[in-house]
Amino acid sequence: MSSKLEQKLAAFRITFNAEFNDKLAVLIKLWSEARTSQSLDAVKQFRFEVHSIRGASGALNFLALSDRLGMIEEEIAPCEEQINHLKSVIPFIDRHMNSMINASRNNPNPLLVLKETPPSLGELREPQQKKEEITSQSYRDINIALIDDNEATSVVHAKLLSGFGFTISQFHSIEQLEKVLDQQTFNLVLIDTDNSTDPLEQMFTFAAKLRSVDINVFVLSSSSSFENRLAAVRSKVNEYLLKPVNITTLVSKIRKNFKIDLTRPYRILLLDDQASMGIFYKTLLEDKHVEVLAISRAESMMTELESFHPDVFLLDMYMPNISGLEVARLLRQQAKYDYVPIIFLTADDDINTKLQVLECGADDVIPKNTPPKVIVQHVNSRIQRGQEIRYLASRDSLTGVLNHGQIMDAAAHALRLASRQQRPTVVVMIDLDHFKGVNDKYGHGGGDKVLISLGQLLLQSVRDTDYVGRYGGEEFMVVFSDAEPSVIESKMNNILTAFLQINYTAAEQSFHCSFSAGLASSTHHDKLSELISSADAALYKAKDAGRSQICMDIISL
User: Fold this and answer.
1) Strand 509-511 to 504-506 pairing
2) How many CB atoms lie within 10 A of CB 532?
3) What is the pTM assigned to this prediction?
4) Phi and psi torsions of 98, nearest 5°
5) In the 8-state DSSP scheme, what is residue 114?
6) What SS3 class is residue 237?
7) If you average pLDDT over residues 360-382, what whole number do you get?
8) Which secondary structure element, helix H or strand E, spans residue 332, and what is its range?
9) Lowest pLDDT segment from 131-135, 336-340, 423-427
10) All domains of the chain, ordered by start, with CATH?
11) Over 80: is that where the pLDDT of 388 sits?
């Protein structure tokens, strides 16, 4: 075997093989107790052990053993509902238990022989190695080519996108862009189908060509016809946007496609009561782009979630004292996990189980004997879709920053973490100066430009571990984790300096804007309400001192 992952998988099989006789001895004891006492508790314990061994054997591709245990579980499961049914299945289970005992006396055990060599894990992980699937980018990394034969609209779009930090190159035709593709690299091509001399069919053919070399393509069109949309789908166009396109919508789509707001690595929380299976799936799924936290006790999950923010939950179905379905319902009771996918890993492929999974708010079931390739692809797909949905649900529709509810949740979480880790969190409250006057003089369109630019400037200026949200109206909140007030004061002054240099144009007039900000540190506050109140007090202090400045609350000085 060539890869470390292959070697680890082989090691798991060797360990399972070596421990199988001990597992079988436990199974024999439990079955003896169940068939003798015919009590519900004994039957449940036996079925649980059958299910656990079945899941492990299926995951390791010992399909003969997995199938045998599956037949036993299928017969014993109804006995949990009607214990009187046990007598009728005893001969069947006795026969299969004796078969496993006889097999264990052979070397090698025929139930533990791989019927075929599984695909190498190195090959199976290949789909995750595509750069565009795993790498988040910043604005400065993204070069955009704009094809628009109308110079007026082209200049407007280019200026607006440049204002958000993107690098824009303008072209009036496909032919003009094709001439430079060998010399210039573009991450995204925007094709305006209305303002082009190129035939529509040629534009979609060109789009397909770009997609074949992993260049993102957005189509801007005033037509919502089924034929055009279908042509875009068949050309694998990333986005089809109807004109007139709101610049915030366009920027939001770009952020989503290039994962500007998504933190890597992907994070998976795996709950399986068998520590060995947790290690197995952790080995299978984890690499430099995927972080897996494997826990074996459901009771410890909530504590772990204080510092670990998963992109997907992988839950075992059957565990002692609690079921995976109960864990899923517990998670769905908390709004912050509404859009985090929940996937069950189970040896039970019964249709009723799948229905129960959907009813409890989970998203899918993956049988434990599923080939590793499918597991990796399935989980990766769910993560990406879940992140996209969470992004859309958590953002303020105008500015692209977190909405009020999400920034408050983020602040509360940061404060809890700061208390536990003894590291300060700084909250900054920001308010635009004389914003009512901006709306009155330049209209709400001018005011929206100011709000959008401040939101995007803040997003570009903070770390991945910090949070930016719209608190309400023209007020923003920024939460800095593990930060010293003096450092944040300096950072906010730099942001203010940059904001003062932005030139806005509305109603054929140019203008500038400023903001005031107040900051407070969790070092001096135990409650979020107190922390925000202190930051607000510092903000009003900045306003009273003449605006366009940053102030700290007195006890943070």
Assistant:
1) antiparallel
2) 18
3) 0.60
4) -65, -35
5) -
6) coil
7) 82
8) helix 324-332
9) 131-135
10) 4-118 (1.20.120), 139-257 (3.40.50.2300), 266-394 (3.40.50.2300), 404-556 (3.30.70.270)
11) no
